[in-house]
Description:
The structure is a homodimer. By secondary structure, chain A is of the alpha/beta class. The first copy, chain A, has a single domain (2-300, 366-449), classed as TIM Barrel (Alpha-Beta Barrel), CATH 3.20.20. The first copy, chain A, has helices at residues 32-44, 67-72, 85-90, 108-121, 136-141, 150-170, 227-236, 247-263, 285-298, 301-312, 331-343, 352-359, 372-386, 400-415, 428-433, and strands at residues 2-8, 49-53, 96-102, 126-131, 177-180, 185-187, 197-198, 203-204, 219-223, 239-242, 272-281, 367-370, 390-394. The first copy, chain A, has an eight-stranded parallel beta barrel, surrounded by seven helices. The first copy, chain A, has a two-stranded antiparallel ribbon with strand order 5-6. Chain A has a two-stranded antiparallel ribbon with strand order 7-8. In chain A, a hairpin with a 4-residue loop joins strand 7 and strand 8. Chains A and B meet through helix 1, helix 2, helix 3, helix 4 and helix 5 of A and helix 1, helix 2, helix 3, helix 4 and helix 5 of B.
Amino acid sequence: MRFNAFVMNTVSHLSPGLWRHPDDRTPDYTDLDYWIEIARIAESAYFDAVFIADVLGTYDVYGGDDREALRRGTQTPVGDPILAVSAMAAATEHVGFGITTNTEAEHPVPHARRFTTLDHLTKGRVGWNVVTGYLPSAERNMGRTTPLAHDERYDRADEYLEVAYKLWEGSWEDDAVVLDRERGVFADPDKVHHIGHHGEHFDVPGIHVSQPSPQRTPVVFQAGASPRGIAFAAGNAEAVFVAAPTAAVVADQVRRIRAAVTDAGRPADSVVIYAMATIVTAPTGEEARAKYEDYVAHSTTEGALALMSGWMGVDLSGYDLDQPLGDVQSNAVQSHLAAFQNRTASGDIWRIRDIAAWGAVGGVGPVMVGSPAEVADALQEFQETTGVDGFNCAQAIIPGTLEDIAEHVVPELQSRGVYPTSYTEGTLRHKLFGRGDRLPDSHRGSRYRVGGDLSTIDDSKRG
Amino acid sequence: MRFNAFVMNTVSHLSPGLWRHPDDRTPDYTDLDYWIEIARIAESAYFDAVFIADVLGTYDVYGGDDREALRRGTQTPVGDPILAVSAMAAATEHVGFGITTNTEAEHPVPHARRFTTLDHLTKGRVGWNVVTGYLPSAERNMGRTTPLAHDERYDRADEYLEVAYKLWEGSWEDDAVVLDRERGVFADPDKVHHIGHHGEHFDVPGIHVSQPSPQRTPVVFQAGASPRGIAFAAGNAEAVFVAAPTAAVVADQVRRIRAAVTDAGRPADSVVIYAMATIVTAPTGEEARAKYEDYVAHSTTEGALALMSGWMGVDLSGYDLDQPLGDVQSNAVQSHLAAFQNRTASGDIWRIRDIAAWGAVGGVGPVMVGSPAEVADALQEFQETTGVDGFNCAQAIIPGTLEDIAEHVVPELQSRGVYPTSYTEGTLRHKLFGRGDRLPDSHRGSRYRVGGDLSTIDDSKRG
Lengths: 463, 463
């Protein structure tokens, strides 16, 4: 079983309002020490990575504006996810960093340089969580008044990744950097290739300006379970995040992802799948449940509804809290509702109030509350039922939730022999798959390697 | 007198080929330790900032391609300038960070968030070096086949800064973040404003998604002495870098910059001007001159000509090294030549070979070689003649040049009472001007403040 720490450069990532809790330090998200502490705790518990989510806009569906998100601190305000990483890397040795960026926010050339640079600075500990769409508020702030259609987004993202792979894999040969002090030759220009990309969305004729980093292509992370999203993951993803309230829903997503991966000609184990989960634990189950009730008491209904409204694209502000969720005429809500109802054994009617309380700690993922043994049981059962490789651990409070996992749950899992007791040396990719630093031959990106099928690599413009 | 450390995320920033020198560590530019060491040395010597230059393309004028720049490591390969900063900030307390970005490389919305985030993480130690143009190779890789005209570039940059100021200064009021745990109110939405920018190049209706950082607007750095560049600096720059071979040329630039600043209604001392200089020093003048000769011996003629050709836009590869520079039919070359010839008392004929040797250590700035006292004399004379506030210290080798300055020149200047012996507490802006963390009222950016002339701030779209 593997863990990531799921965080965001904001207050209240997935637990709306828990910045109110006296033990929560998320309002310190602007301090470097806060980030360094997160990385250190994650590394002390042998987590694969600190995975940093991102949005570039506000949640403005609830009430038709951004007021409630601002008032409650619902993923607002939010900072850039990449900038604290070098400080976290300097304070740690092994833990990886999964960084979310959006294929619509930046041209692929400077973006590819950013990840190469960070992969160098972290000695190969970087993952890229590829996101292809924005919150509508972010689209508007980037000057896009008509959002791209869902599939069009993915088509553009496909080409974005093609450019990125060409830059990372196809420009510099492994022995291009010569560093011959005697002859004064730094690089052999015959071994640095112009990628010659001329596509529908991007025109990138030249070289990647950065020399290859340990992993070349960062470990490609992806989330999303739509058919087009799964097709995208099948070709590109090495780590996939799923987030759904019940094991049954997750199991179905895992099946579809693994099938798509093998259909794409890749081994089934070439993708690591993490399920989002929020763990609330303490030495005894009683203490854990009291802790959970305390967290719920510090959440805010409006903050949770602002988050849920944004995710579902439906303004829930016009409903009475006691109204049944079934009253909301929306396919998105009904599909969420179906998932939620599977979550309980009872056939209780879900009300607006329930979805707020439920989203208030842990977003749309399962919440596992209990003693270390109870949580370990729940994790193992969830893993067996779903076939996931591990969990993307969301935070109720920071650093408390991480500390509790590190102190209580990880030792319990280790004693059961199901959790690592040390790190593998090497890059994030090698830690995840044990097969070296680079993309495997079965991955789409390897096609663009120097020496691979270089039909798209064009040196004709070189003198 | 004030110093910055002038560096770049590359081998051989301004001393082409000196990565060959046995004491030079620039090939370690991909390591975090390298950057942390630079920051620590700069802070130990009370430097204002580590100033990180950038290009996003290759020098491909010499010989008509990028082969010589690659072979000699002439600012190639190159990494992103911003990503090591948080690690440098975690290892230091006072030194600032001047980071170069290009107004054509990224949309102003994510860019503004990047600088707000970093200003938070560094507790207000960030400067933004605004660059408005690319190397042609970078333009091509960003899909721009027809470069923008020089003035058009600046017009677009003007609007880019307007958007940035609105986001940084005009969106969040100082007391917008309430952090009221009892009431569950993180921010007061009435105090967070939509900027409502609808311009020629950008359409940004919404809020800045990040809460205000210590400085709000990072200290605005700028280089460039063209008439339009000076007009741009007059309205925006708080720190200006000049780079010219002789005091006479620098003095003229300083006069024009200060005149433009006062013409723009700003106090003359609201801009700090640094001249680029390369210092080569040792305990005795004899040792210093031997050190300089050793550096020149490790430079590469082709690497230097690749750099000079890129800067002047003229391919110098077709000339014999002994040919007089006067043979090169180019206005850019002739204006450089005029500057170079002023640099020596003699009326010697400058040849291609001379410009290569001269550009090989320290680029286009003066090189000051001598004992600590000789260098201090030269710096003081240069400062008196030109009216600059300090120097942007380029590196012959890293960390040797910085170490030599810290060990030998700074104590000499301190003993003369002309160099700081401690840091002022506070943000970079407060350290530079002693008047608080925020933009002064006389600065263009202050116009966009909440409570200022908010004619452009439009809250009408708020619910």
